[in-house]
TrEMBL record:
Its main location: membrane. The keyword RNA-binding does not apply. GO terms for cellular component: plasma membrane. This is SURF1-like protein. Residues 256-281 are annotated as: Disordered. It comes from Brachybacterium vulturis.
Length: 281
């Protein structure tokens, strides 16, 4: 099989496969470094990015590079535009999150809504006598112009709609249907809640939770692709070698079969004439 592998055609194919494998290795390294960079960024203290309007435009997605970082923004809460998100567990306590709508002035004179996670409350504090979560028991947002500071987070995935001021997730696609547009695609989690609200732990969007494993998975996939290219070359060499061995065997069997079919000559019978005896004379 070595003679087959050293043929110019297969040597050229091997060179191409090695180049493809090296490219896969570089891509795998890049994905691995990116995954570890994300882990490093998440382990570091949140960066101060400044005014939200200089960080994120209305409608733009909250990318992993800015998710979890600190932003500031000035605006005014809209009376009546508030929802609560039950079903959370914070430090072992059943909790509800309080989300309010903040109007933010834009540079072109328009105003856009920004969902703000103002904090959380134990579910028992917003549950009525019948055991139902009641949004009316949640403190209203402060009025007037206010400057807030908090972590910028990506929207959670929407799986339902708002029902009576109760939402299943902090999802801007769902909130825009409830409050109107234009609206920022992410939300801000306040660093210092007001009143009786408690500080939310660091939020984790589906995007930031899944990115590390996604990049690590991609790196393993590229390694597998590189190994597949080399396996494909070996498989081609082996298949060619086996085909040639089979052809030689078939030719040999055919040759031996032709030799067996040749007619055989029987040994010549030699007859001798005996000299006449005395009786014949």
């Amino acid at each position: 099989m070595l003679r087959v592998a050293l043929r110019p055609r297969f040597l050229g194919m091997l060179a191409l496969m090695i180049v493809a494998t090296l490219v896969c290795g570089l891509l795998a390294t890049w994905q691995w470094d990116r995954a570890h960079q994300v882990i490093t960024d998440q382990a570091a203290e949140p960066a101060q990015l400044g005014d939200l309007r200089g960080v994120l435009a209305v409608g733009d997605p909250v990318t992993n590079e800015i998710a979890g970082e600190i932003v500031t923004v000035t605006g005014s809460f809209v009376p009546g535009e508030q929802v609560i998100v039950p079903g959370r567990n914070i430090g072992g306590t059943p909790a509800v999150l309080v989300i309010s709508s903040l109007l933010v002035d834009q540079g072109d004179g328009t105003r856009a809504r920004l969902p703000v996670a103002r904090g959380w409350l134990p579910a028992a504090e917003v549950t009525d006598a019948d055991g139902r979560i009641t949004p009316a028991l949640v403190p209203a947002a402060p009025q007037g112009e206010i400057e807030i500071s908090g972590q910028l987070e990506a929207s959670e995935a929407a799986s339902g709609g708002v029902d009576g001021g109760v939402a299943p997730e902090i999802a801007t696609p769902m909130l825009v249907n409830e409050w109107g547009s234009p609206m920022y695609s992410g939300y801000v989690s306040l660093a210092e809640p007001s009143g009786t609200l408690r500080t939310l732990p660091e939020a984790e969007s589906d995007f930031s939770r899944g990115l590390n494993w996604q990049n690590i998975g991609y790196s393993f996939q590229w390694v597998a692709f590189g190994g597949f290219f080399l396996f494909l070359w070996w498989r081609s060499v082996r298949a060619t070698h086996l085909d040639e061995v089979a052809d030689r065997r078939e030719a040999m069997q055919k040759l031996l079969g032709e030799d067996d079919s040749l007619p055989t000559r029987s040994p010549a019978v030699v007859t001798t004439t005996a000299p006449p005896s005395d009786k014949d004379v």
